[in-house]
Amino acid sequence: LEDILITGGQKDADNLFTFSRNCYALVIGILGTGDFSRSLARRLVACGCRVVVGSRTPSRFVALFPEEAEVTHMEAANQADLVFVAVYPEHYSTLVHLKPALAGKALVDVSNGLQIKQEGPSNAQQLADLFPESSVVKGFNTTSAWTLQAGPRDGSRQVLLCSDDQMAKSSVMQLCRRMGFIPVDMGLLSSSLEIENLPLYLFPSWRTPIICTLALFIFFYLYNSVHEVLHPYITGGKNKLYKLPIEIVNVTFPSVALVMLALVYLPGVIAAFLQLWRGTKYTRFPDWLDHWLTRRKQFGLCSFLCAALHAVYSLCLPMRKSARFQLLNKAFEQVKAGNADSWVEADVWRMELYLSVGIMALGLLSLLAVTSLPSVANTVNWREFTFIQSTLGYCALFMGTLHTLIFGWDRAFLAAQYHFGLPPTFLLVLILPLTVLLSRLKCRYLIMHQIM
Ligand SMILES: NC(=O)C1=CN([C@@H]2O[C@H](COP(=O)(O)OP(=O)(O)OC[C@H]3O[C@@H](n4cnc5c(N)ncnc54)[C@H](OP(=O)(O)O)[C@@H]3O)[C@@H](O)[C@H]2O)C=CC1
Ligand SMILES: [Fe+3]
């Protein structure tokens, strides 16, 4: 058995070597003359391969292909060593007459599904059933026609491949490298369902963070509208509707940013307590906690977006006509009252501190956002990464809360006085020390109980 394995492996390696040497001499077939086929042909010709394109009506499409590619009838597939099937899966059955021409060849299925499928058979498996004498390789469906045409320097470089035939898969991998892409081996053809679903997902890991951000935004926006617009109207008959597009949005963003940032650190604390409670870390977390823990990066990035928008909105506040009119009115009232100096020391200090702490919080958040990018995260080691994401993250949370508190402490008391329920600032004040305290306790206990 060992002998067979060794000689078999040697044979595969020899074949691979011959393939890579002859890659330029290989004839690559493409069935179909659509967008994908045209881009693929251009790419293959550019890296020196001989290309034969099979079409039902070759004369109609020959002008759309590079001169070096031969556009001919479908049966020309028998000249090719490896064939790309660039035809929609619904039309696979119209290709069955090519069975003898395609026997013993590697067929690359590049198709995408129309909707996410939980159960097979995948398009690639259907193709394999139609052509049992060929070796089907799934791949290139995650590469758009545009990426193929522009070349791998402008687009995703990874090409996910899977097949039951190791030899056929290796050949396609080799060709893939020649074209400048990075092949990723996804195993057997049964993985094709997942590969076909990949381009159809719509931000799967972002759904919960985005829903949370929107829900918090709506909650804080409504709360602030009641507080700043409805309440003055009911009690004093003042029309403050002009505040809705900018001012209310501006005071809503920091609250959303802070709560989202607190939500980044909360699941870690809950997880640590669960481990302590169970006395072991070798049990699975409940699904909701697992889900939450894996989406902390997205929560953090949503928080960063809200904080950045708050900064932009704040910078635009003095540009508004309403702000200019208010300033003029104040100045006029001051002149009328004969007041030459409107300097209030406490207000001045509050504003200076408020801005300074806010800028620092945004700076720290930007650092967290930048280091969450894979290319940057790869350049720091695990200790550096946790220092930035954990320690500096808590600092950002602390500064952000301080920023909100300095600005809103008197409003918070005002709101409580008018029975508006628990003001958002109080909510934040509660979340922050609790999170920090729990995380510190977590570390102590985990070390003491030696379950880390
Ligand atoms: N466009 C893209 O960016 C990407 C496409 N893909 C996949 O590539 C495959 C082809 O896509 P695309 O090139 O955009 O599609 P097009 O509609 O542009 O082309 C499909 C081609 O299939 C050929 N064909 C063969 N038999 C039939 C038939 N019975 N009825 C109709 N057409 C037939 C036609 O060529 P002819 O008339 O010459 O025979 C036609 O040009 C699809 O499976 C798609 O999912 C995957 C990733 C990206
Ligand atoms: Fe602010």
TrEMBL record:
Protein's name in the database: STEAP3 metalloreductase
GO CC, alphabetical: endosome membrane; plasma membrane
Keyword Manganese (UniProt): no
Cofactor: FAD; heme b
Subcellular location: Endosome membrane
Signal peptide span: none
SUPFAM superfamilies per UniProt: NAD(P)-binding Rossmann-fold domains
Alphabetic keyword roster: Copper, Endosome, FAD, Flavoprotein, Ion transport, Iron, Iron transport, Membrane, Metal-binding, Oxidoreductase, Transmembrane, Transmembrane helix, Transport
Gene Ontology molecular functions: cupric reductase (NADH) activity; ferric-chelate reductase (NADPH) activity; metal ion binding
Residue ranges of every copy of the Pyrroline-5-carboxylate reductase catalytic N-terminal domain listed in the record: 28-113
Transmembrane segments: 200-223, 251-277, 353-373, 385-406, 418-438
Record organism: Amphilophus citrinellus
Main localization of the protein described in the UniProt heading: membrane
Membrane topology: Multi-pass membrane protein
Domain of life: Eukaryota
Residues in Ferric oxidoreductase domain copies: 256-398
Family: Belongs to the STEAP family.
Reactions catalysed: 2 Cu(+) + NADP(+) + H(+) = 2 Cu(2+) + NADPH; 2 Fe(2+) + NADP(+) + H(+) = 2 Fe(3+) + NADPH
Cross-referenced Pfam families: F420_oxidored (PF03807), Ferric_reduct (PF01794)
Gene Ontology biological process terms from the UniProt entry: copper ion import; iron ion transport
